[in-house]
Structure formats: structure tokens, C-alpha cells
Amino acid sequence: MKKKISILGSTGSIGETTLKIVIKDYKNIEINTLIANSNIKKIIQQIRKFKPRNFVITNVNVFNKLKLNYKFKKTKLFNNYEKIRDKNDLTVIAIPGLASLKPTIHFIKKSKKILLANKEAIICGWDIISSVAKKYKSTIIPIDSEHFSIAQLLKNHEHQEVEKIFLTASGGPFLNFTQKQMKKIKIQQALNHPKWSMGKKISIDSATMMNKILEIIEASKLFSFSLKKFKIIIHPQSLVHAIVKFKSGISKFLYHKPDMIIPISYAINEKNNQILKYLKKNQNIVENLNFSEIPKKNFPITNLLPKLDKYPSTPIIINAANEILVDQFLHNKISFNSISKYIFKVLKDKNYKKYAIQKAKNLNEIFKIDSWARQTTIDKILNKKQ
Hints:
The protein is of the alpha/beta class. The protein folds into three domains: 3-142, Rossmann fold; 143-306, no CATH class; 310-386, Rna Polymerase Sigma Factor, Chain: A (Orthogonal Bundle), CATH 1.10.1740.10. The chain contains 16 helices and eleven strands. It has helices spanning 13-24, 40-50, 60-69, 101-108, 119-135, 145-153, 179-182, 187-191, 200-208, 210-223, 261-269, 273-281, 314-330, 338-347, 352-356, 363-385; strands at residues 3-8, 29-36, 54-57, 76-78, 88-93, 111-116, 139-142, 162-169, 230-234, 240-246, 251-255. The strands form two sheets. The chain has a seven-stranded parallel sheet with strand order 4-3-2-1-5-6-7, sandwiched between helices. A four-stranded mixed sheet has the order 9-8-10-11, covered by helices on one side. Helix 1 (13-24) links the parallel strand 1 (3-8) and strand 2 (29-36). The protein is globular and about 55 Å long. The termini are far apart.
């Protein structure tokens, strides 16, 4: 019997990588539901190529245009994921930002296994996600390369054996920039990651190092370790994605090329012969590996690390402010260096503690804190311009 798979964010880099894997194992996988926002060209291509049972287009204008101008015999079009009631064997969550939290919860209830590639949903709503997953007997598997590596490295080990967990960062495009160069960063420079091909938001997060801040919060929740257990180190080759140091004096790391097809394919089926052939064919000889401390002058956002566990909802606030600031930078409204500066301004706001000390127990409380942080960030930007 074929496994039914759904992909949320099918036109993004994670979604497209998953579909590559599906092509290599098409006999054993049936595409149930794909969800995308507004890339009409890719949506049409995916409908024609993969013939999913359902396709959800969240952008109303794109949805209406497709409904009016196209007819697809084997695919039903929807504008709302809540109308999808089908059960899945696997669901890949690759929608960026906090917008993924509600659909994640919806699909957990309908999936045996959730492959999660969204940091923000875990950071802001892990307690809810884990509770729903337990109730509906759904397994959560992280497919970010760092968390995939940690999961593999912790197998057959107890928590008390672990001394430190290192998450590696390539350093992105600005690792060796001078302070003078850092003041003149353009949008395209920030999007041009030297190792990974990613969406715009995560590319900017990688350039600022915010992605590592979010990954540490995510890892602490996924693996139930204190935030103090984690450290970020620079590793330009992007071949080692996490290192676990044990109290015994032994350290372990997982080495694989910077290709998301590896963690995704293992999460789907680690015994897939077609994928194993691909991996073997594309495996490089072990290269020299370099590790170093973070140059904080180039990545001031890493100064957030000591503040992450001060109050329970600090991560929600940091995430919300960052989403606004990345969007503002991508629309050329603020400078690259302003991203970190505005986040620290939000954390110094007179009402910050009032919201940060709250322990969000449901979606409404999460979105209330998130909304305050977004509005406060916008206010800080507008006040600067006035």
C-alpha cells in the first residue's frame, strides 16, 4: 500500500526537495495534499506533474485566478486547509514563520508522522504541538539538518551523559566582512548564502545568525535540555551540523554534505534504496574541517543568547520582532544592521516584561504576545523615521 504524503509549503526549497525524493520513490508514495501561497507558475507545474488529490492555495487572488482560468481533472483546489479532512501517513511542514502553527496543529491530528522544518511553530507553540501529538499518537520528527543530527547523535544515550551540544553555523555571506563593509550590506548580498539554497526569510536569518538563535530554542524544546547546554560555533564547510560532547570525554558529530535531501529522505524512509544510491553517488571525500568562535562584531544578534531563558515568552517576542524586521529589510525599509538593533530596542520597551513573563497556554495567548511584539517593532521603526 502506498504511503500518503502531504506537503505544507510545497513551492519552497524544503517542499521542492521533498518532491524530488517523491519522484525517486514514486511507486511507494501517493501525494495527498500540497499547500502553497502565491507562486502560480510553480503551483500549476506541481499540479500537472504530481497530480495531488488536493491543492490548497492560501492567497485568495491566486486561488480565484486558478479556479477561473484552469481546470484540473484529478486535483481539487481549496483556499482553506481546514477543509482538508484526509488522513496522511506523512506530513511535511515547511511553511515559514508563525503562520505555520495553526496548520501544524491541524495536520498533526490527521497524520501518523510529522516532518517538521519550521522553527517558529516549535519556538512559540511547542507545548501545544507536543500535547496534540501525544493525544493523536502522531510522531514529530525534526528535519532541519542540525536537529536531525542531534537526534541521530543522542540515540542510545541518556540525557545525563551530555555535557554540551554545539550547533554549527557556516557564517553565511558576511563571516569575513569588515565593519565598514557591514554598514553597506545590500539585500541581494544577504540572500546569497555561500552553501545553502534557501527561501528569502531563512537566508536573511542565516546572514544575521538569527537562525542559530532560533535553532537553539527549538533544540532545547525538542530534546528537553536547558538553553545553557547549547553553544554556536562557526564551521564554514557546513559538513558537520551538530556536535555532542559527552561527560565521558568523547565527542560525536554527524558529517554530511549541505543537502536537505539527506535529513528529509531519512525521515521519510531511511531504507529507501533509490535515495541511498543518490547519497552514495553524491558523497564527497572527507574534507578538512574548521571550527572557530563566533566573531560577535559581525553577528551582534548572538548577544541575545543570555536573555533567551529570562522570561518564558521572550522567544515568542524575539521571533515576532525578527519576522517584521526581516520583511522590512527585504522591502528596503531598514538597513541590515538595524535588524539586531531594533530587536534589542523591543526588549528594552517599558511593556516588554509585562508580556514576556506570561506563559502562553493556548493559541490566543501566543498570538496576543506575538501581536504586541509585532506592533511594538513597527512603532520603533516608525518613531525612528519621524
